[in-house]
Every structure is written in structure tokens, then in C-alpha cells.
Amino acid sequence: MKKKKLTLLSPMNDGPGVEKGEDTTPNLKFFFKQWKRKFWKLITINLLLLVQILPFVLIFLIQMAGPKEPAMNHPLYAPLIGAQAIAPTSAGVSLLSAISGLNFTLPTYNSPINWIFAALLLFHVITYGWQKVGATYIMRNLVRGDGVFILSDYFYAIKRNLKQGFILGLLDCIFCGVLYLDFQYFSAMPGTGFYNFMYFAIIALVIVYAAMRFYTYLMLVTFNIKITKIFKNALIFAVLGIKRNLMAALGIILLAALMVGLALGMMQISTSLLGVAIIIPFLCFLAFASFMYTYAAYPVIQRYMIDPVPAKKAAKDTSTEA
User: What does the pLDDT look like over 121-165, one tens digit per residue?
Assistant: First the structure.
């Protein structure tokens, strides 16, 4: 009797495809069918996606395990207390006080730790676009029902989009960083009319840009178009595909809530399950979430960028489609 080959971590395993004559309308019913068929492949893909968050996990662990000191020992603590007493409405003083004027311990940063943090962040910024390109190419093929060979497809997509992938990833990191800093800044400001307006404006921008990110890398691996046009189209699709975008966002939120609820439930049962509760999200969350928003976004791109183009012209315009 021939032994069955272990397929969980096999990069050459293609998995089940779409049945002949099956209704492939990209609705909620077909989503769960595809998710069930691709379940183990998504778990495998998640191992690749973990590299995207690895620098931040390492930074967090270093902060948790590194040396600490009382916040009152921070060199800015005393000057800030005095400045805040003199000018309590000063924006700069309020922000710095929020950062350093805390009544608990803070990580002690020294030159080696700073260099480690800088190296991890630099690695993330340089490689992020390539990682997203490889993962998005695989997810797009899964959604389309194409054959998927994880490792070869991953590096194939990176090689084909080496320059644009790097540029898009760099811009993406910059935009996300600026939005994060703006959100942190305006959330720490006094609740005046101007600051309230800016605070909610930043939240709106975060929501819009999050929806745009469903489409940016997906267009990059599908078409040979300029990055400026990618952002322009992504903004348009964030509006045209609002229903599917909201469904994807809701699915991701529910998935995150399920992961948290599962972890809390397991910890309530037994503290010995704490390790399992922590590991479960790292096994599946990134891949499941990526599959959700790719499944939501690709039909919008197909409807507005692929289907309207005559077959002959489509073959020419998408000649670099992978």
C-alpha cells in the first residue's frame, strides 16, 4: 500500500481546485468553500507572513526582557512637570508629558539596544514591499483558483516586481508611519475644536488608506502600471468596492475577536494553556485576514479593470500579468 505523503508543509502541493460546473460567484457562500479547501495551504502561507511582523515581535520581546527604570528617573520628568504647571495647555508639553511622565517603569535604552531596534526596523522597511508582493501574488492565485506552489510563486513574484515592490513598500511604510504619528499626536492634544477636527480627520484617513491597501499590492502583481496610477485606482476602488471592503473589515475584526476570545477562554480553563493561546493567532491570523481582503478586493479589480477590456487589448495590456 502506497503511503500518503505529508502535505502540510509541502511547497509543491497544489491542493483541491474548483469543481466542474460549480458556481464561482465571489459571494459569502463561495468564500467559505474556498477557505475550507485552502485551509492547510493558508496555514503554511502564514509561516511566510510571520516575517512581516517578526521585527516588531522581537522589539516587543526586547522591551519586555530588557532593563527597566522608574519613570520619575527619566531626565525629562522634572522639567516637564514644571513646564506643564506653567503652560498646561501647551501642545508640545502635553505630548512629551504623555510619553515620559508616567508613574511606572520604562524601558532603559542604551546604544546596543538602539542599534538593534534600528537594524530591525531597517530590515522591515527594506523588505516589506517584497514580502507583500510575494504573499499577495499567492493569495490572488488562491482566490482566482489558480495552481499555487508556495515558495516558487513567492520568489517568482518578488523577482518580477523587484523595483516597484521596493518602492511601493517604502511608500507604504512612510504613509503608515506618518498616519500613526499623527494619530498619536492629535489623540494626546486638548479637546479643542481644531484638535478634535484633526483627530477625526486622521481616523478617516486611516480608514480610507486601510481600504486602499486592499488593492495596491494586488494591482502591482496583476498589471504593469505606474505606482502613481496604483494609488489613484486604489482610492477609486476604496469607494467603488465599499460593500466588499466593509465585509472584509468586519470579517477581520470578527476573526481578531475570535482569536482574543479563544485565548481568554483557554487561559480561564487552565494557565498551562497560555502558550497555546498565544501561538494560535501566529499560526493562522495573518493568512486568514489576507485571504479575506484579497477575496473581497480582486472581484472589484476584475470588474473595473479586466472585464471591460476587449480580449485582444487585455492580452496586450496585461502581458506582464503573472
Answer: 899 999 999 999 999 999 999 999 888 899 999 999 999 999 999
What value, to the nearest 5°, has the Cα angle with vertex 274 and ends 65 and 276? 110
**33-140-143 Cα angle (round to 5):** 15
C-alpha cell at 74: 527619566
d(CA 45, CA 137): 12
Distance CA(134)–CA(159), nearest Å, equals 9
> How do residues 38-97 score in pLDDT, each as one tens digit?
999 999 999 999 999 888 888 777 766 666 655 555 555 566 556 556 655 555 555 555
- State the Cα–Cα distance between residues 207 and 221, nearest whole angstrom: 23
Global confidence as pTM: 0.78
DSSP, res 76: T
Q: Where are the beta strands (DSSP E) in the chain?
A: 68-70, 105-107
- Identify which of 185, 249, 181, 175 has the alpha carbon closest to the alpha carbon of residue 209: 175
